[in-house]
Amino acid sequence: MRIKYLAHASFLFETENGIRIITDPYKSEGLGGKIKYTPIKEKTDIVLISHEHMDHNYTEDIQGNSTILNRIGVSTINGITFNGISSYHDNVAGTQRGKNTIFVFKADGMTFCHTGDLGHLITPELKNNIGKIDVLFIPIGGTYTITSEEAQKVVDILEPMIVVPMHYKTSGTTLPISNVEEFTKGKTNIKQAGTVAEIKLPAKQEIWVFQPACLPV
What we know:
By secondary structure, the protein is mostly beta strands. Helix content is about 10%, strand content about 35%. It has one domain (about 1-210): 4-Layer Sandwich (Metallo-beta-lactamase, Chain A), CATH 3.60.15. It has helices spanning about 30-35, 125-130, 150-160, 180-185; strands at about 1-5, 10-15, 20-25, 45-50, 65-70, 75, 80-90, 100-105, 110-115, 135-140, 160-165, 190-195, 195-200, 205-210. The strands form 2 sheets. An 8-stranded mixed β-sheet has the order 6-7-8-9-10-11-14-12, with helices on one face. The chain has a 6-stranded mixed β-sheet with strand order 5-4-3-2-1-13, with no helix packed on it.
């Protein structure tokens, strides 16, 4: 599995069979110009959308005849089974920011979990629905999602082998969210993954920090 960090909560997955999956594509210059990342021009087969906000659901720049998946439940596309699991964008049952979909899927012998804009901690029921995972993509910026401290609690509950922080402050956004160092400070199991990396599971849990490919020049 090859993974490229586009920006924000958007990643491009490319399986060994050449299936390309993009998560949560953003609108460049969206949210009143607060999203300054360059447009996503990648060609893809499948687009996963966790919720209908323009920094997570914008597909117009994406190339190819993509299947859009934005629903709860089990779906099989191009031979890959996705489980969309209901959650919330806040910690008050969605009354502030609505619902959020966690996607779990298995490819190339590994199980991936992209939590979208998760806004609350993981309950025992939600943990059971998610199941055992290998790679976790988790927001850490706070304000609109869980905070770095809460993200670590989610990691402790789900116990993935690879943790990929996302939805944090960079030069590509002026949103009032924390930078990745808020999550990584004091930790020693950090791997600088660059922009693109081949995923191979480590013997012990690691945090993989990617560099966004779509930073503005």
